[in-house]
TrEMBL record, chain A:
GO terms for biological process: iron-sulfur cluster assembly. This is Fe-S cluster assembly protein SufD. Residues 180-403 form the SUF system FeS cluster assembly SufBD core domain. It comes from the Bacteria. It comes from Meinhardsimonia xiamenensis.
UniProtKB/TrEMBL annotation, chain B:
NCBIfam families: sufC (TIGR01978). Gene3D superfamilies: P-loop containing nucleotide triphosphate hydrolases (3.40.50.300). Residues 2-248 form the ABC transporter domain. InterPro entries: AAA+_ATPase, ABC_transporter-like_ATP-bd, ABC_transporter-like_CS, FeS-cluster_ATPase_SufC, P-loop_NTPase. This is Fe-S cluster assembly ATP-binding protein.
Amino acid sequence: MVAVAKLTPQKIAATEARLEGATLPEGAGWARAAREAALERLRATGLPARRDEYWRYTKPEPLYELPAPRAAVFDAGGEAPVFGEIDRVKLVFVDGVFDPDASDEPSLAGVEIARLSEVTQADIHWAKDLFGVLEARGQSPVPRPLAALNTALAPDGVVIRVTGKAEKPVSLIYLHRDESSDAMLHHLVRLEPGAELTLLENGPAAARFNKVLEVDVADGARFHHVRAQGRDHERLAATHIFARLGQESTFKSFTLTANGRLTRNETVVEFTGDDAVAHVAGAAVGDGDFHHDDTIFITHGAERCESRQVFKKVLRGGAMGVFQGKILVKPGAQKTDGYQISQALLLDEGSAFRAKPELEIYADDVACSHGSTTGAIDETLLFYLRARGIPLEEARGLLILAFLAEAIEEIEDEALAADITARLEAWIRRHRRAG
Amino acid sequence: MLEIRNLHVKLEEEDKEILKGVDLTVEAGRVHAIMGPNGSGKSTLSYVLAGREGYEVTEGEVLFLGQNLLEMEPEERAAAGLFLAFQYPVEIPGVGNMTFLRTALNAQRKARGEPEISAADFLKLVREKARALKIDADMLKRPVNVGFSGGEKKRNEILQMAVLEPKLCILDETDSGLDVDAMRLVAEGVNALRSPDRGFLVITHYQRLLDHIVPDVVHIMADGRIVKTGGPELALEVEKNGYADILKEVA
């Protein structure tokens, strides 16, 4: 069990300092109640501090202290836009503010798309049953105060209800233009029984970005999620995904992170129906002032569910990678199949990887495995490639990509996998050793 | 084609001399075999020629097509036409066999100032060479050598050799771990590559491979030196009497 940090006077002070002057966004009575409840959850635990066990490897303060650290806007130049070749419904946010002019008409058969700021004015029962609900469930046994902060204060987001099989992905594009922007977005996705949706996300969003995505996957529904976080070197991000999976449903999420000074991506998955599948994967490549933290918590509360966590990091120039992954198998969750692998490839001695894999199992008929490795490029493989005529840097690139392959293979759609692979190849080319 | 003169090599990490003055010349169009007991330095010689790290050349020189081989990077040696079929081919998870072969071929072509091969021509080339070696489409699709049997790995080495068309082929104990059928396939693959402008250096512990790949010249290596050179009959002598007699004779 993760020990819940004590609410110290310092924590109370830090939390109140963050909330000072903050006002809850306007909304209907139910939305206001949900936001106030989130504030209560936040005040009950306080904002995270480095001394918290759950934040041992990642410094949380820059993710919430005011004012947000500035981050230069990165110019990708003539680079092909992420997911540029994918036919999708684009919704654009600039520094966290929805830009209707830059966005597509949000019409897609079998999919209702709205804005959180609109939905919270109205009386929409499914949104009421979701907003802050999965986040609240995810606060135990480990508190996630930055997510509660988000539920309380995030002014907007996208709200999606899927009743059929969406014929193309919904794509959230986060642009960063203001060096001092501090953005929060809160998205809700509800997949009705048998529905299917692919959600894409890309871009840095802001100098600092706090995002929550609550996904409710009903029986037999399928949710695919692929995101590419922005390349802005100085940006900070704290993201949470809370997913609840019904019977025979599927949830697959992949994240590519290339650069960014500080990223904490938490994914919290709960199986509530039998025979469901959840795959959470990530490829992170970082150079220099790069700190990337994947924190995953998967709760098996039903029988015969399969979960996979595949996380790969390539680090150089003093970059730091963190993985905290937990599989919790509740009493009665028999025939659980849980797999977890976290691996780091360190391209130099200054880079480091810290991993904390955890299994907590209360059922007696389960198959759970986990592994974690840290290493350098295998010189034997490198020589083999060079002996066939492949130049040193190209050979290194091939092996780096090969190392990441297991994570990329988690992306089902070939075109999306190809797009992500192209990003990684470009990163490898840019970061070749001089000479 | 290949001239090795008084080559002395020691391991970088320990002060142990492995090659103690090797002299050897391989001409185009000829097959030279090196035989010798375990620990004689045969595999070290192949690694030093291919450019593997961990060895220090303390004396001597190696010329390959007139160039100073020891000053070249491994990839430069490959592009110049040197190929080593590994005794223990490595598995490379995550790198597809076809991707690997094509990357290698195009890298060599690029290094030589030749145009890259088109995807269609490449596919045709590989399919044709693979068929002769009984390498099926599934093996080509899989990651390099991952899950291959010993025989499949060795056949894959010969496939690479056939596709890359090197000028000098060094085969390091290619027969080890092969059953009779696999050895015949490998030998046929090698024999198909024999040509007047290509040289071979076949390193083996046993004579049996040389029944299938008939050498022009046989060298016996012992304690880091070539101690005896002769025709194919020398291999038969080893088969019959073992190495002890020859070593006694040259001691």
